[in-house]
Amino acid sequence: MPFKKLHPTIQEKLENLEITSPTEIQKKGIPVIKSGANVYCTAPKDGGKTTALILTTLQKLKFEPVGTAPRTIVLVENKEKALEMYDAFVKYTRYTDLRVYVGYEQLHIDTQRSEIFEGVDVLISTPITLNKLFLLNGVNTSQLKMLSIDDAEFLKQKKSYTALMSISQSIEKCQFVLYSEKIDPTLKKFESYFMQYAKKVSI
């Protein structure tokens, strides 16, 4: 059972949330993501992809705040999705020392930059906002271990796609995990760039 092999604090949080058994995508996907490979995770809507993203992110960080530079980044489509993702993370990180920060287009970029500099472990953002931060040297990627993208179908939008391609070129080394309902041609194209040798987990 994937949950049994996760960090004790995660198991405790799952118990508090009364989540007792993994969904199919969590059962198949979590062990592959934990291996450190780049992964395409595909499953139907409400299949448990977002929870898999949160659990594997927290597993990677082991609930320990380290330094000031983000060690994991989570990309989403827009402000609404960013705030939803933040709320979902807080269910697991409340009463811990992990620092989760959320940014989006409507929040002033200088505000985001100064707040991120104070220290974050998980950075939730949109590709467009994150790319702006990169261009302003507002995010240090030297400690980055993992970049996950939730409901990645939105990358069909040209601005988001272009921003992600720019971001990927600024990152020297990290694990990329894309979550979607299916691998469409846009997402498949990433295999030629930052998703090389990616494993595919599908339900």
TrEMBL record:
<feature type="domain" description="Helicase ATP-binding">
    <location>
        <begin position="30"/>
        <end position="201"/>
    </location>
</feature>
<dbReference type="GO" id="GO:0003676">
    <property type="term" value="F:nucleic acid binding"/>
</dbReference>
<dbReference type="InterPro" id="IPR014001">
    <property type="entry name" value="Helicase_ATP-bd"/>
</dbReference>
<dbReference type="GO" id="GO:0005524">
    <property type="term" value="F:ATP binding"/>
</dbReference>
<keyword id="KW-0378">Hydrolase</keyword>
<keyword id="KW-0347">Helicase</keyword>
<keyword id="KW-0067">ATP-binding</keyword>
<protein>
    <submittedName>
        <fullName>DEAD/DEAH box helicase</fullName>
    </submittedName>
</protein>
<dbReference type="InterPro" id="IPR011545">
    <property type="entry name" value="DEAD/DEAH_box_helicase_dom"/>
</dbReference>
<dbReference type="InterPro" id="IPR027417">
    <property type="entry name" value="P-loop_NTPase"/>
</dbReference>
<dbReference type="Pfam" id="PF00270">
    <property type="entry name" value="DEAD"/>
</dbReference>
<dbReference type="GO" id="GO:0004386">
    <property type="term" value="F:helicase activity"/>
</dbReference>
<keyword id="KW-0547">Nucleotide-binding</keyword>
<dbReference type="GO" id="GO:0016787">
    <property type="term" value="F:hydrolase activity"/>
</dbReference>
